[in-house]
Amino acid sequence: MVETILQTLKQDLNKRMQGTTDVLQRELAGLRTGRASVNFLEPVVVDAYGAQMPLTQVATISAPEPRLLTVQVWDRALAKAVEKAIQEAGLGLNPVTEGQVLRIPIPALTQERRQELTKVAHRYAEEARVAIRNVRRHGMEELKRAEKEHQLSEDEHRDYGKQVQTMTDTFIKKIDTMLEQKQKEIMQV
């Protein structure tokens, strides 16, 4: 009985912590570095067929070179709408249209802009750490509640508390590693 409750709690905490790191990974992927990444165009929404559609639903995005993105529009009639959507997305990108293909050169980042992006990456990482700690706090409260209700002994509470802390430390370390990699990527000239 106790084992199943604790196993369920552990799985729940692990799932929530993994979800937090997944969100951080998506946020960091969206940060623009000096290199081309198809993730830059993820927030772009195109006015197509009388509706707002994500760019990925009307075109194929690729990064053939480190400083170039290409967008292959599936319907030639949407090429102008896609170009307009990219320009108005506030990404600082200026596409060059060649029929159904848009070539988007990625401008180099200034040192000042790189430092700003590093600060943003740090903020994202700190938000993820706080979320992980909140999940840990929730887990510890559940253990305390189970002990109060005499479902756990004091020793079991302490042992499982250590396991929750170890899981937390592992995820915090993962966040730090992700941040470090992103910093290197941003600062790379």
UniProtKB/TrEMBL annotation:
<feature type="coiled-coil region">
    <location>
        <begin position="136"/>
        <end position="163"/>
    </location>
</feature>
<keyword id="KW-0648">Protein biosynthesis</keyword>
<dbReference type="GO" id="GO:0005829">
    <property type="term" value="C:cytosol"/>
</dbReference>
<dbReference type="GO" id="GO:0043023">
    <property type="term" value="F:ribosomal large subunit binding"/>
</dbReference>
<comment type="similarity">
    <text>Belongs to the RRF family.</text>
</comment>
<dbReference type="InterPro" id="IPR002661">
    <property type="entry name" value="Ribosome_recyc_fac"/>
</dbReference>
<feature type="domain" description="Ribosome recycling factor">
    <location>
        <begin position="24"/>
        <end position="187"/>
    </location>
</feature>
<keyword id="KW-0175">Coiled coil</keyword>
<protein>
    <recommendedName>
        <fullName>Ribosome-recycling factor</fullName>
    </recommendedName>
</protein>
<dbReference type="GO" id="GO:0002184">
    <property type="term" value="P:cytoplasmic translational termination"/>
</dbReference>
<dbReference type="Pfam" id="PF01765">
    <property type="entry name" value="RRF"/>
</dbReference>
<keyword id="KW-0963">Cytoplasm</keyword>
<dbReference type="InterPro" id="IPR023584">
    <property type="entry name" value="Ribosome_recyc_fac_dom"/>
</dbReference>
<comment type="function">
    <text>Responsible for the release of ribosomes from messenger RNA at the termination of protein biosynthesis. May increase the efficiency of translation by recycling ribosomes from one round of translation to another.</text>
</comment>
<dbReference type="InterPro" id="IPR036191">
    <property type="entry name" value="RRF_sf"/>
</dbReference>
